[in-house]
Amino acid sequence: MNIVITGANRGIGLEFVRQYLLADHEVWACHRGNLGGLAKIDSPLLHPVKWDVTQALSVDTVALLPASIDILINNAGIYGQDQQLNKVSAETMRHVFDVDCVAPVRVVQSLLPRVAVVKGRIANLSSKMGSSTDNGSGGCYAYRAAKAALIICSKSMAIDLQSQGVQVITLHPGWVMTDMTSHSGLIDAQTSVSGMRKVIDRIADYELGAFVAYDGQQIPF
Ligand SMILES: NC(=O)c1ccc[n+]([C@@H]2O[C@H](COP(=O)([O-])OP(=O)(O)OC[C@H]3O[C@@H](n4cnc5c(N)ncnc54)[C@H](OP(=O)(O)O)[C@@H]3O)[C@@H](O)[C@H]2O)c1
To answer: Does 78 sit in the ligand 1 pocket, CB within 6 Å?
Structure first.
């Protein structure tokens, strides 16, 4: 399969790259300039592609991506700083929204023809923190709002793309030991990604536009 992953130079994105390469798939690993862990991988199946997802896909970049995409993983994301009610700035709210919600929508707009041509799958990485039902502790204004908006956009994508045979799922990776959590998560990236890969494999078993955790459990939002 041809697999495209954004934010693939570290954390969960890098682990997706490792696992799909191990399974002999061809991987286009998008990063925004720093190769990070990709530099240590020696595989003819790996194609690093420089792409800051807040920027429109350039003609040069698009030429580096495959003509058909079986799985597109919108993984790139940021958490944001100072998100308490008395501190969060409009600039932080806009920036986190741009990276965590606007960018995945634009990525899909840019690459949809290449996914549709093989009736491929799209996985959008949101977070349980974007679930209003799950919000028992408040705060985190920018991140919660952006990830909630991504769940909504991802559900619309699932509905809109059904007629083209493209399946879309929204994922929660769990609380994972990566830079984003200062490595204080409950599970490692390996566990998270192997679980999410199973969910992506079984996408048809879930209701349209479902929000699903790495362990296969559907999350209300
Ligand atoms: N870790 C968790 O517990 C957890 C929980 C729920 C959801 N998530 C979500 O899972 C995804 C991956 O998280 P993670 O824990 O692996 O985070 P991470 O370790 O902080 O890695 C984030 C990745 O996104 C990339 N990125 C950020 N902005 C980008 C941009 N504008 N263009 C392209 N790439 C960009 C980063 O690239 P640079 O190296 O260039 O910064 C990095 O590769 C995120 O969407 C996150 O919100 C994570």
So the answer is: yes
Q: Order of strands, edge to edge, in the sheet holding 71-74?
A: 46-50, 26-31, 2-5, 71-74, 121-125, 167-172, 211-213
Write down all domains in the chain, each with its CATH number in brackets. Answer: 2-213 (3.40.50.720)
Would the CB of 201 count as within 6 Å of ligand 1? no
The predicted model gives 197-201 an average pLDDT of: 98
Write down the pLDDT at residue 83.
96
Nearest to 25 by CA among 83, 70, 62, 67: 70
Mean model confidence pLDDT for the chain: 98
Which tokens in the block code for residue 200? Answer: 């992506």
Q: What is the CA radius of gyration of the chain?
A: 16
Mutate to test the pocket of ligand 1, among 38, 78, 183 (most ligand atoms within 8 A of CB): 78
Overall pTM > 0.85: yes
Q: What is the pLDDT of residue 94?
A: 98
Q: Do the Cβ atoms of 82 and 130 come closer than 8 Å?
A: no
Q: Judge if the beta carbon of residue 77 lies within 6 A of ligand 1.
A: yes
Residue nearest to atom 33 of ligand 1 (CA): 52
State both tokens at 153. Answer: 């956009």
* 195 within ligand 1 shell (Cβ under 6 A): no
C-alpha closest to that of 158 among 126, 188, 128: 126
The residue whose CA is least distant from atom 17 of ligand 1 is 180
Q: How far apart are CA 123 and CA 200, in angstroms?
A: 7
Distance, CA 35 to ligand 1 centroid (Å)? 14
